[in-house]
Design brief:
4 copies of one chain form a homotetramer. By secondary structure, chain A is an alpha+beta fold. In chain A, strands 1, 8, 9, 10, 12 and 13 form a 6-stranded antiparallel beta sheet that branches. In chain A, a hairpin with a 4-residue loop joins strand 12 and strand 13. The two termini of chain A are 19 Å apart. The N terminus of chain A is likely disordered. Strand 17 of chain C pairs parallel with strand 2 of chain D, so a sheet runs across the interface.
Amino acid sequence: MKSSMSKKLFSRSQKVDDLGLISKLTGTRRIINRDGSFNISRRGLPYWESFSIYHWLISMSWIKFCFIILVSYLIINILFALLYYAGGEENFTGIVANNEFERFLNEFFFSTQTFTTVGYGRVSPAGIYSNVISSIESLAGLLSLAIATGLLYGRFSRPMAKILYSDKALIAPHLDGNAFQFRIANKRAGHQMVDVEVELMMSKAEAGKRSFYNLKLEYSKINFFTATWTVNHLINDASPLYGLSMNDFKKLDIEFLALIKGFDDTFAQVVHSRNSYIHDEISWGAKFVSLYSVDDEGNTSVDLNRISEVEKAELHSVN
Amino acid sequence: MKSSMSKKLFSRSQKVDDLGLISKLTGTRRIINRDGSFNISRRGLPYWESFSIYHWLISMSWIKFCFIILVSYLIINILFALLYYAGGEENFTGIVANNEFERFLNEFFFSTQTFTTVGYGRVSPAGIYSNVISSIESLAGLLSLAIATGLLYGRFSRPMAKILYSDKALIAPHLDGNAFQFRIANKRAGHQMVDVEVELMMSKAEAGKRSFYNLKLEYSKINFFTATWTVNHLINDASPLYGLSMNDFKKLDIEFLALIKGFDDTFAQVVHSRNSYIHDEISWGAKFVSLYSVDDEGNTSVDLNRISEVEKAELHSVN
Amino acid sequence: MKSSMSKKLFSRSQKVDDLGLISKLTGTRRIINRDGSFNISRRGLPYWESFSIYHWLISMSWIKFCFIILVSYLIINILFALLYYAGGEENFTGIVANNEFERFLNEFFFSTQTFTTVGYGRVSPAGIYSNVISSIESLAGLLSLAIATGLLYGRFSRPMAKILYSDKALIAPHLDGNAFQFRIANKRAGHQMVDVEVELMMSKAEAGKRSFYNLKLEYSKINFFTATWTVNHLINDASPLYGLSMNDFKKLDIEFLALIKGFDDTFAQVVHSRNSYIHDEISWGAKFVSLYSVDDEGNTSVDLNRISEVEKAELHSVN
Amino acid sequence: MKSSMSKKLFSRSQKVDDLGLISKLTGTRRIINRDGSFNISRRGLPYWESFSIYHWLISMSWIKFCFIILVSYLIINILFALLYYAGGEENFTGIVANNEFERFLNEFFFSTQTFTTVGYGRVSPAGIYSNVISSIESLAGLLSLAIATGLLYGRFSRPMAKILYSDKALIAPHLDGNAFQFRIANKRAGHQMVDVEVELMMSKAEAGKRSFYNLKLEYSKINFFTATWTVNHLINDASPLYGLSMNDFKKLDIEFLALIKGFDDTFAQVVHSRNSYIHDEISWGAKFVSLYSVDDEGNTSVDLNRISEVEKAELHSVN
């Protein structure tokens, strides 16, 4: 009787093989980094097949992005200035220059005024050659600035979950057994999240081969993610963690992979977040302290600074 | 027999603990405000970690938004005007000024003409210094106006459900029992909604601890949200509301949390809406009046002004 | 045995009450128009609460949209021209005018040049007053043109399914019984659709009250919507249509409501379409002809022009 | 006993008829091309009903797109130049021309300066006629460039899965039977995919009629698509492939249709990909080699260049 039940329960914490995950992976590095990126390098494809210029530009740092915009602006205008320069001085009216370099400078600034369509007109094209080039430049300017401004706004309004994870996961007493737990919070004030789901996987390495398990959660979905959520996997006899000790975790190179998705109110879109915990990021025999407090007027507040704060808690013995 | 059935039914109106919701919450304020925001304050994170400038700019009032645009425009142009001013008068042609302040004004307006790329050219940069600054300003103008215009259009076209809720929820007679009911309508003409779902939770506080329940709805999804929908939770013996009186609602500080989502035709996107009802927003022994009328030509119309209108209705006695 | 089975089957063609649909509706007009809009008028809300300017601008005809853009452009520039005119002639350089009207015209065209940021500079602001106004106008121009161009591109790239429906639905012989059928096709070449789902409801009016039923479909989802799909509801004893005659359809004012959604490859988004069939849009005893033909080289083609083409087909007798 | 079980299993690899798929299709071409497009031509609709200018512009090659932008730019400016030319020379100030053609050129370049709103002002409109035309042109320029830049950025940031498929699918030994397999990888570095699902259909032609089957997969969804995934359909007695030989595959003109969808991190959106395998793209008795390697420092890497690499593998005999 009991074994059939546990079999049934077990089927909820399902073993999964050879998926997108790397069952042959015997490396000692973690699978998912703490910033949510996958820890695996890719080879073999020609650079331009694999490289995504969009991803590169949308995810780089702001400083780097501004630098690239500025440098591109400089280079494009130097190129057009050289074209104007090649056309000769008679192609322009209004150039005031004592020497060739000053003429080049005049044409460089004329180029910037054309590219951005500011077009003061003190210097202006007088010949067919310079008129043709500047007609093209003003169009090119509008089009390439459209990409720059699109990226700029895309970066600014990019739908991303900013989930705060507790630094460590816990093996904590829960109900009449123990549970694997971690705590999350929504970092962004104002960005209210609803319909939030968590999927949790566990990976262990045995005999040079990695295997993966979907872990059953006490609750895998919540309607309202008001502030924090303690995600909970009960370690009963249906769990692949059942009977494993702290040492086993290390020996088996156990890693927990969490995938969180929810609807972000401000972006009006579904957002995702990923994280992982490896064996030395797991505290045994601890539980999270409450973050909530109520003041004299009945207002509730939550202290996100203490999201990783735990207190000692005796684990239930499992025989 | 009966108890097993009710147990089964009960499992549909499920108790849920310690989710994103605050089970330790003992505050006396409501959890969700009537505008759909969560009523909990957040502390602990450094301001810039938690603050979302995007959310701030996209959700503020239009008046405030326009004010911020104008003030930023003013400040940026003053800064650039100071830079031009620092460069000296010989850096420009076309300045007409009797004194230093008038020169500054000339340079300020030159700056606005550069920033917006209107570039009349009556005043125009003549030196390297002013040319460099104005090249940067016209680029900066294009880029920062891209964010402003992106936000402007983003605010204008932001996918948001405008759901009209009845002011009060009801405990109304329904079938051969009683039901918890509220009524919703789509405020926006033209924005037709399909695939609309409602999730309803109930929260009560007992012994200083809040617990939460998912309430089973008669219908939780409709294909066509033509005009109005009366959301219905039957208070049978499987409901956590079963046997509670009006006084119990107050004593237990009961709050109903509603989450509505649907596909908006005009935005071509899924939109969400939230609301809550607390004990003194619930009328006992009332039912909603019909909002529909048909004229002589067979045209049906709905009067949204009367969405909260109720009439007295004897509740069924529950023994 | 049989009744229990039919009961079970029946539960799939479920009766649904008082949802977004109007169970009290006794009007004689159809519920969903053939263009997919709902046929119900809304009253009671203050105009500006209910009116959605975004929906109005995004869904009006192109001619009307262009007209509104042009008229707004004209009005805005007349207003600014009046402001410039009020400032007096000495506020501008470059005005060439023999009379007051010509001066106004000069200032009107200066205004258009400022609003669009073209800024030729022949006429340019010389006083503080005109400079302040034109600084504001160029900013206002950029911002309001951002809304106009956003709407223009939004209209152009708006994710909408263009589903072609057969003019009539059929009661056709199918397997060893009869079925309610209609045929759909994807109008847009190139816009390939996958993961397409259909939901079909039926509404009938009896004793002054409308009731609604979800109809069970033979297939309600397809992975690939290559070209056409004949949607099929079997009229077995589990169907609410079972035993109804052509006359009953008319007497009961029966209407079929179809909701189609799928993922559009080009928009990279889910799109929806709606349609309805009322009793005189249903042909009894007919079936759709095949639209496919294969040429000598083995190429298959589909003739969408014949989507509504049917041929006579004897219905199965139901006893 | 056995037959009932196989019946139950069979129901998972379901036969599906007359859906969007063309059951009457007897053409000898494949249904889905290797680029994911459907291989069927459409007739009957009036050209402008069926043609989607948006799809055409968003999916054409970059070279063609740039060419169309340039040619449109040229044509529009020629048209406006002709309008200006028709107005006579006295409508402009600043024109420097020795003959009529040079005047036209002056007006052509004035037009480009107006359309792009660069507006140098050397040539500028002096009469009512030219002022009206140029007011319209600058507005038209802003609006039509909004579509061009919208499309440009839309093309650049278009959410598309770039899935790499193995050149061939395999019939490979798997567990204690055989399986239909193909391998996929995410081509784009940085674009991390989660919640990836595969749907696999099989189509065969018998007696001039095509039938379609949904094939049951060992795993049809993975949470993390780190690098590669070998999709697996077990050919047990519940599979419609059971008992078919390599020759049968050819005779029945069997085609496998794969639909892949997942959430792309960078686009923050769901993306789709399609592919198909026909009989001569299937290798019998082979299995995929592992692509993973671990270097001395424990770093794992995957060699996508070898995604199609297989080695011989004895199939299990099926009796």
